[in-house]
Design brief:
This protein is α/β, with parallel strands linked by helices and 239 residues long. It is 27% helix and 22% strand. Helix 1 runs parallel beside helix 2. The longest helix has 12 residues.
Length: 239
Amino acid sequence: MMKLYYDLHIHSCLSLCAEDDMTPSNIANMSAVAGLSLIAVSDHQSALNCPAILPACKRAGILALPGMELCTREEVHVLCLFEELDGAIKCSDYVRNRLIQPKKKAAIQIRQTIMDCFDNPIGEETAYLGAAADIGIYEVSMLINSFGGVAIPAHIDRSSYSLLTNLAFYDPEMNFHAIEITKDCDKEKLILEHPELAGMRFIQNSDAHSLEAISDPIHYIEVDDVQPRSILRAITGKN
């Protein structure tokens, strides 16, 4: 067995909330310097910077999974991790077509930059990625699985855009196998308040929007090999 120290929730400059220097090479190199073995760039409603982050991480000597942070119809954030890049991009395209775009666009200029693996801008996403998608929370797990991925409710203990804040409960019929908690979460207290979470896998990520916020090598999974399928199985406990 080998330990992989991870941070699976990092935002690049494709996300409006991330800083401009959250570029593929900067993220990969900072993660390597921090001592991480495995990361995922999980931008809001899009995986379009994953084609850049995967080779950037390979160049930096660390592993990467394609990722995305989905915002559901209920405005619940869900971390989505994929076995293959092709599945992530197809899912990203599906989500883009389901975005509930605001009727009036903001007057300010928004930056949603798509980059290559050497940090060269190659495009701008024109759809507003801050919008929710017309995808319900009970649909998410099966949908992401159909694209070769796993769905994990994000920062479940946070006071905004989280499953417990927006819906107040977790229903096993939602069919999630793991949940994400923040680095400051009291896991035991959370389970006492929500016994329906007992027995689920817990992961903790940085949800980094800046380079300095990328996690130190604290949290790890144990795997027999570094194939993406084995990594996803270790994260969720699901075959």
